[in-house]
Write the structure tokens for this entry.
Amino acid sequence: MNLNEKLTELNEKGCTLTIQRHAVLEYLYENRTHPTVEKIYYSLKEKFSTISKATVYNTLELLKNYGLIQEITIEKGKLHFDYEVKPHHHFFCHRCNHVYDVDVVGCPLAGKKMIDGHKIEEMRPYIIGTCSKCLKKKG
Amino acid sequence: MNLNEKLTELNEKGCTLTIQRHAVLEYLYENRTHPTVEKIYYSLKEKFSTISKATVYNTLELLKNYGLIQEITIEKGKLHFDYEVKPHHHFFCHRCNHVYDVDVVGCPLAGKKMIDGHKIEEMRPYIIGTCSKCLKKKG
DNA sequence: ATCTAACATTAGAACAATTCTAAGTCAAGA
DNA sequence: TCTTGACTTAGAATTGTTCTAATGTTAGAT
Ligand SMILES: [Mn+2]
Ligand SMILES: [Mn+2]
Ligand SMILES: [Zn+2]
Ligand SMILES: [Zn+2]
């Protein structure tokens, strides 16, 4: 789903399309590195010096609630965000703190709505380890 | 793996078995509800009034590094811990904030050591939604 | 075009979770 | 007994997130 489709969807659902909301969504569209809130905030601040942290948090929460972005709790104590909302696995490297997409096929939970009587609303398949780049560094 | 086996393993690996470490591990052994650090700390404090938060954090980190307990980052901004280290899925109810074990068979990642060139050290398959108890309440 | 009420943004304070610090305690070996 | 290193403690500091109250903006009604 490209940027304009998401912006249109937001608009059609009655959400005011402020310049800040546009900027946050656009930033995630252009930066598929699963940035932290801090990263998003300071990056936006460069082009947009008056944007506030509260707005960044509010906007991320809003976009998440509209189902347009995904929140990632893979790293202890801080949030990452992802423009891509289609279910996919994430790999966290505890050496360099990067979050990678990984493609896993054949997940038995794919498409399931319920498990053990609980209603599934979101899947967060996380994998922790050492990434390929850091494995090479190790020497 | 029962409590004595884990205590023995700790001891054999040269780790001093202090009363605090014993207490934290025992608490997790007896409380399989995936407690938060706060819960662990205040529960231990009842029987053991001088235990400090730093010790609880240090001990949880130490036990995790020995592979005797598991850290869970399913809830935004706070840690839960699990005595059980065998790979299993966790379900987080965003209504009541409980963490449940769920049994999922046929995970294609089971036993895998590598993915996309990254070294897998830990699996954290999280599922978010509304638990069976909260679904009933909703009525 | 102007008014108005609801909504959005801002800066910074407040808060919550975790980590750090420095002093004190304990245990084992010389 | 003395020394050394490891452990614990209370509380301060730090970090990430949420709240607050003032200000600014938007969109619909007039
Ligand atoms: Mn992703
Ligand atoms: Mn569990
Ligand atoms: Zn890495
Ligand atoms: Zn529930």
User: Anything to note?
Assistant: Chain A has a mean pLDDT of 96. The pocket of zinc ion (ligand 4) is lined by residues B 93, 95-96, 98, 131, 133-134 (CB under 6 Å).
